[in-house]
Automatic annotation (TrEMBL):
Heme c 2 binds at C196, C199, H200. Residues 1-21 form the signal peptide. PROSITE patterns: CYTC. Binds 2 heme groups per subunit. Residues 32-160, 181-332 form the Cytochrome c domain. GO terms for molecular function: cytochrome-c peroxidase activity; electron transfer activity; heme binding; metal ion binding. This is Cytochrome c peroxidase. PANTHER family: BLL6722 PROTEIN, CYTOCHROME C PEROXIDASE-RELATED. It is found in: Periplasm. It comes from Stenotrophomonas rhizophila.
Length: 334
């Protein structure tokens, strides 16, 4: 239980040298920030319904996804976005499918103030809930700031450094034959004929993402003939002061605008951030709306639209597609 772990941690923090029974204890030290972040992440008392926490949509046994097409938050409220894995996050750079925040410390606070996620109407309401709990006051002090909570959650999420995947072990050894023959052929396809590495970069981060925004023609067809009234609705919501994160999760059509809802740049219409491929074989369903159910179907979709975009159709045999899937499976950790 998160509460038990937090209580134990706080007890350790408060037992400082020189604090005997008759003395006033020194203020708690901000040690164990990641552990406090883990407690916050798993504390259902923070949800407006008393039953929802961050782990509701990010389950550790599924590489911190929830296996749903789109996530369901407090009070059973359904959103519009597929929950991405939290393993291997970047601390600075575009966050969420549409990149509406530029730092993880900003992104972690949004669910707390979204009625479709943790159930609160504002972050301030969530902060009042946190401040009412003596365990957190004991750790952070009498006045808990948003930066305290965001710092703790960020520290915890950045600590989710999974064990090396088979691919990472093979790369470190400089020997890709360790992947097996099929997966090694899949790696060659990934880097070459399949053109996957053009967006899913094979850099030192092992996230396999260029952190850029691309069009994959997923879901956009449904709104393509209704853009003008949709943009008017988006503008009206902006003028009313509605946060973008709330608009995106509450309105399935606005959600399909992708990066455009952030930038208003026509070239960003229907574009979404390149997802990480780390643990990709364990995190179905796929795409921003969870509309593709299997890894094999996701491969077929990506090959078709990548070829369409480049003007060079990509044709893989059944065996080559199987090899590519075998390689992608080596990006998962135990």
């Amino acid at each position: 239980m998160a509460t038990t772990k937090l209580t134990l941690l706080l007890a350790i923090v408060l037992i400082l040298p020189g604090c005997t029974g008759g003395e006033t204890p020194s203020p708690p030290q901000k040690d164990g920030l990641a552990e406090i972040g883990e407690a916050l992440f798993n504390d259902v008392r923070l949800g407006a319904d008393g039953r929802t926490n961050c782990a509701t949509c990010h389950l550790s046994e599924f590489a911190f996804t929830d296996t749903r097409a789109v996530s369901v938050g407090a009070f059973g409220r359904k959103g519009t976005r597929n929950a991405p894995s939290l393993v291997g996050l970047i601390e600075r750079g575009p966050q969420f499918w549409d990149g509406r925040e530029g730092a993880l410390s900003e992104a972690v606070m949004q669910p707390l103030g979204n009625p479709l996620e943790m159930g609160h109407d504002t972050v301030a309401a969530a902060m009042e809930r946190i401040a009412s709990l003596p365990e957190y006051r004991a750790f952070f002090g009498a006045e808990i700031k948003e930066t305290d909570v965001s710092g703790a959650l960020t520290s915890y999420l950045m600590s989710l450094d999974a064990a090396p995947s088979p691919f990472e072990r093979a790369r470190a050894a400089g020997d890709y034959t360790l992947l097996g023959a099929r997966a090694k052929r899949g790696l060659e396809l990934f880097q070459g004929k399949a053109q996957c590495a053009s967006c899913h970069l094979m850099d030192a981060s092992s996230s396999f993402s260029d952190q850029q925004f691309h069009h994959a023609s997923v879901g956009f067809e449904r709104i393509a003939g209704n853009i003008r009234p949709l943009l008017a609705r988006l503008e009206q919501a902006r003028h009313s002061g509605q946060p973008l994160g709330r608009m995106v999760l509450a309105d399935v059509d606005i959600a399909e605008l992708g990066r455009f809802a952030v930038t208003s740049d026509p070239t960003d219409m229907g574009a979404f951030r390149t997802p990480s491929l780390r643990n990709v074989a364990r995190t179905a369903p796929y795409m921003h709306d969870g509309s593709i159910q299997s890894l094999e179907a996701a491969i077929e979709h990506e090959l078709y639209y990548r070829g369409l975009t480049s003007g060079r159709p990509i044709s893989l045999t059944v065996e080559e597609r199987s090899d590519l899937a075998a390689f992608l499976s080596t990006l998962s950790t135990p």
